[in-house]
């Protein structure tokens, strides 16, 4: 099993916010960022699909409808890997609180929906999502240590 950042003795902390579009994620994370900075805490903000490696390719591909579900998945994996290696890990090691407006779970959810969309059975999507119990839905949420 993978170790958490705290178990790796990284002095920083990662706070990831996931949710539906328009649910207030960006607003809440912005308010948290301002509060942490006012408290004198070093903060870094990262958002979904922001890696310079893939940002323009993703935008162009979406507009022209050129991206297959597999291509979307690979682009988002590249985006995450680049942000993780170049920004998130070094800043966590340096003691920053890293705020992520979406994290890896967004990619998982979207890949599942795209796979179902390719099959074309939207009833199966609803049934699959409805069958997930609360204990599974909140599993990625955990808290250890303090800010």
How would you describe what is shown here?
It is built from six helices and three strands. It is mainly alpha-helical and 147 residues long. The two termini are 24 Å apart. The radius of gyration is 17 Å and the shape is globular. The protein has a three-stranded parallel sheet with strand order 1-3-2, sandwiched between helices. It has a single domain, classed as Rossmann fold.
Low-confidence blocks of residues: 141-147
Order of helices and strands: EHEHHEHHH
Tell me the total number of β-strands.
3
Q: Mind telling me which CATH architecture this is?
A: 3-Layer(aba) Sandwich
Cα radius of gyration in angstroms: 17 Å
Structural class: mainly alpha
Report how far apart the termini are. Answer: 24 Å
Strand adjacency order, main sheet: 1-3-2
């Amino acid at each position: 099993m993978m170790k958490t950042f705290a178990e790796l003795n990284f002095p920083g902390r990662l706070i990831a916010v996931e949710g539906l579009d328009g649910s207030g994620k960006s607003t809440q994370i912005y308010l948290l960022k301002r509060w942490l900075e006012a408290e004198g805490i070093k903060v870094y903000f990262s958002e979904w699909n922001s890696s310079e490696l893939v940002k323009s390719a993703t935008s162009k591909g979406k507009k022209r409808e050129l991206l297959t579900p597999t291509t979307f998945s690979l682009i988002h994996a590249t985006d995450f890997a680049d942000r993780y290696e170049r920004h998130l890990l070094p800043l966590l090691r340096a003691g920053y609180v890293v705020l992520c407006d979406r994290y890896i779970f967004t990619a998982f959810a979207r890949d599942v929906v795209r796979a179902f969309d390719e099959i074309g059975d939207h009833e199966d999507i609803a049934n699959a999502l409805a069958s997930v119990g609360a204990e599974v839905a909140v599993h990625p949420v955990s808290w250890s240590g303090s800010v």
